[in-house]
Amino acid sequence: MVSYSGEGKRQLSSDLDEEEIRKLEGILRRRGARFIPSRNRYERFRARLNGSLVMAFTTGRIVYHEDLADVILEALRKEEVVELGSDEVGKGEDLGPIVVAAVVLDGRSLAFLRSRGLLDTKSSSTLRINYVYDLIVSRALSIGIREISVKEFLTVWRRRNLNRLLASWHREAILRALNGVKRVDRIVVDCFDRRVLSETLSEIADEVDAELVLEERADLKYASVAAASIVARIRRENLMARGDVGSKWRRGLRRGP
Fold this sequence. Notes:
Blueprint: E1 11-15, H1 18-30, E2 34-36, E3 43-49, E4 52-57, E5 61-65, H2 69-75, E6 82-89, E7 98-106, H3 107-115, H4 126-139, E8 142-148, H5 150-156, H6 162-178, E9 186-190, H7 194-207, E10 211-215, H8 223-241
Parallel strand pairs: 6-9, 9-10
Antiparallel strand pairs: 1-5, 2-3, 3-4, 4-5, 6-7, 7-8
Helix pairs in contact: 1-2, 2-3, 4-8, 6-7
């Protein structure tokens, strides 16, 4: 995250739907915010409240100073939903392990993390990522992790079977996250192969009576998947710091048929 020029305040961003943006505008007006003329056709509105700035864009993106996070939270929808998001990191990297994480969050925690800029954390500093990671851990109903070391990957990988391996690791992480959770309404996975993921995960979703959502770039839309991405990233960085930094692709590969 960067700060607005000259103001020294941290900037956050999130994506709101039409209803949430209208609610935010109403909250700002009730609190006496000063609305400032928009600077271009992409701005829906900009306003100042207690010395801090919030801008809403026609795309649904809002950008705001961090001390307005609770105002943003008030505008966000708190669904009566329990959502599990699953994502992996490291599959495209030459060095280091693969980590799959599954995170279960209820509606209020999903909204809280959105208000803290979760969906925009991939471009954040390491300090910010660690801060958001701590928020996720404190808010999650459950977290499931599957870590695949470089050594294990070199043992099990064969040409053309990566997606099936990834799907099986997502399955393991999801089952671990589901352990002890009374209810899950929606399981969302960042999709890399719809057919393979559906074959691997549909039975689990049916067993817990949950909707299975498989979407590409799901981490940009679903807070649970963004949370899983952050958890997986931190866990992977910790493994690499402890020495799991070998090459997965350039040496020692056992190439099967």
